[in-house]
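Here we describe the complex-level prediction in full. Unlike the single-chain runs in Section 2.1, the two entities below were treated as one system.
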Amino acid sequence: MMQTEQPALSIVVPMYNEEESVGPLVDAVRDALNGAPSWELVLVDDGSRDSTVKIAEALAKADPRVVVLQLARNYGQTQAMQAGFDRARGRIVVSMDGDLQNDPRDIPLLVAKLEEGYDLVAGYRMRRQDKVVTRKIPSWVANRIIIWLTGVRIRDNGCSLKAYRRELLDQLHLYSDMHRFLPALAAATANARIAEVSVRHHARRFGVSKYGLSRIAKLLADLLTIKMIATFRENPLAMFGLGALASGVAAMGFLAAWLTSFVQRADPLDVAPMNAYVFPGSALLCIALAVFLTMLGLIAEEALQKVRAEDQIEQLDLRMART
Amino acid sequence: MSDVSVIVTVVERPEPLEALYREYAAVLASCGRSYEFVFVAHPYFHEMLEPLRALERAGEPVRVIESPRSIGETALLRMGLADARGSLVVTLPAYRQVQPQAVCELLAAVDAGADLAVARRWPRIDSSVNRMQALALHLTAGRLANGTLHDVACGVRAARTEVLRDIPLYGDFARFLPLLAIYNGFNVTEVASPQHTSDVKRRIYGAGVYVRRAIDILGLYFLLRFTEKPLRFFGLIGAVLAGTGGIALAVMFVQRIFGQPLGNRPLMLLAVLLATLGVQAIALGLVGEMIVHFNASRRRSYRLREPEAK
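The structure predicted for the assembly as a whole is:
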């Protein structure tokens, strides 16, 4: 069944094996938004193996404001969120976890803050109800690193409860595991104005947490990516140029070491045979690296020229939406 | 319009094709399917196609497409798919891997809701050399199926036509079609079927074939696991290389402070080599990430399941 009018507010909830939570979640959203302007709730099933879909579809049949999307397999939370964003029709979109740890009653607070002129409002879990060692500490460390690397002062990147302006989402494209870095990405690529609002947080009522501790290497790779995108997206050649410069300096160092090994001898020609190739060899390797990095930078420039132009047009749209 | 399009790719070790056609046609008729056969052939097998052309002229539901130039199985399969008119497609190699009756079971599995049904040669009566090769394939490419498939190399498959047309096929990945289907969120079922006696003969290929296969599997692994996160792949390699080189360099610099000269230590050359290689790998990964980032607006990595009832 297709709704005709466009809702003012879309709530996007990725779900993976949340059969116990779906019902209470829909009820909670309905209660929280009672009296609010028109809204829709987009439930995105991320290839659940339990009866999440069945329950959600029954709920959708009973209430036309509830929409169910079903991904073809388990793609991950990022892709589920992107699918929901693509389907959401509201001018304001709110994302939220499907496990009832976020409280829908906070949605009006986020929306009110957004309407003060921000593009993204992130929830900040005040009294977080999670395990300390496996969840809170890694999360605290990760947030510190993200702040330090990106300069975006969001204390709680892991909180899914966030509100976005439609025009911002139109120019953010999530892939891989990037939903965790959404505010950083939004600030870096769209110059988004970002605010924080403290929100309630409940302990998990049903099911098990779908996160583990084994993500540190992946997180590091993602952080490096975010840092690179935040700093060098306008000018990738600069990044590789810096690397090439550092490599060139190292080459100079090795050459200098080689030359001093001549000077230090009484007889300048009496050099241990290995000296003849260890230092110059190292210097040559560094020079090769410098050349390689420079060429890579040029290729990157080449590959990105056109997309960056399109990007700027999207940014213009966001600026116009704010006013 | 025929129900099933059978696409036979004639690209390696073909058996007499007319007999193959008659055998499978009889089986398809026995399970009540109307059918058409599309033979897509590599030009190398030009002579073998003559009996098929005779069948085509005699009005049998056979079409023969001969590629004008030397192309691989994937491109042949794509040509066949473009030409298929049935709502279901059966792909067959030009040789017998399983008992022909398997085709009926595969089609039944598709009717029962599978997007793609793949035959598994089981029970297997293979020669030990073939078994070892199959095991090697299973332990490498087979792992990408997350334990749902046991015989990725079996070319006998059935699917809905639009499913096969939806799966991006390029390079040399046709032989891994079921893995690509799983990756794209299609529902893949395996159907066990006794191995055919003519498939048992020991097969040993030239060294080049194994090298190409290994490269294919590496490419597939990268495609299915890291397309969206190249830095995780290159970064890991780079971190190991650069880390080893960096630690070795650090140790040598510390030793230098305590008086051991550096210039006569070939180990330093190795350490610098590792460090530069590592940096190169990471730099390549970063370029990959940048390309993914800027192209994210153009492609969506998820696929929605079509709603069953609207």
